[in-house]
Specification:
The protein is built from two helices and no strands. It has helices spanning 2-14, 19-40. Keywords: Membrane, Transmembrane, Transmembrane helix.
């Protein structure tokens, strides 16, 4: 559940018009989500 929640939140960030500021954050969150998926799922 935690993994899907993080991934869903990341998709919301990607849909934001201000991608320039969120780009690095989105990449970081993407890696965190991947790690959570491996550890929890």
């Amino acid at each position: 559940m935690a993994c899907s929640a993080v991934c869903d939140h990341m998709s919301v960030l990607w849909s934001s018009p201000d991608r320039f500021i969120l780009s690095l954050t989105a990449v970081f969150v993407m890696h965190v989500c991947f790690v959570l998926c491996v550890l929890l799922c």
